[in-house]
């Protein structure tokens, strides 16, 4: 399915995350020119250069179809455990990684997972789908060991405030997956209260480095309109 940049700022019928990603699951992996996934992959790969997941137990919250897992397994973790609200996305993941442990979750709750279960936590393009960011981060903190690390990426709240959305086509209709705006400073405040130390922050803006994505789709006017706006960010924390 061809990704359209125009969809980022288009009004669409909104679906809650579980329903939305169940609908999207069938075509989610077929998005070779998706700007958001491209930037997310760049940010994550760059941040992973600063850490090791060798012999670590990794949790991927909002794992979806496991789009990062092939690269993660090359880094030789002990295990990767996937968590997602979408049955459809987890079914796609299990086709690619049949032996992987996965859990269907509701909102922020990681029910049935022991405290201090993991020593590395990853979450990409997920937190904004969760209404209560504080409860989510508290739950992530619960399952993460002391000294463990977290990397998460997400749509930048500035983009969400300017009506950017996670949209997709299905059977001739455009849908958006429900998102919530969590300011970066709010995330930092919660993290500090949980005893997390910020190691690194990065963000990607709509700038010259992504202009070709717009030009290839005849969307130069959108590029000019939103140039300079941060689109995605990533943060690396360590739990003390």
Structure description:
By secondary structure, the protein is an alpha/beta fold. It has one domain (5-239): Rossmann fold. The chain has nine helices and ten strands. It has helices at residues 17-24, 35-48, 69-73, 87-96, 133-143, 157-161, 184-193, 211-215, 220-226, and strands at residues 13-15, 57-61, 79-84, 102-104, 118-124, 144-155, 166-170, 173-177, 196-205, 230-239. The strands form two sheets. The chain has a seven-stranded mixed beta sheet, with helices on both faces. It has a three-stranded mixed beta sheet with strand order 1-8-7. Strand 5 (118-124), helix 5 and strand 6 (144-155) form a beta-alpha-beta unit. It starts with 12 loop residues before the first strand and ends with a strand. The model has no long low-confidence stretch (mean pLDDT 93).
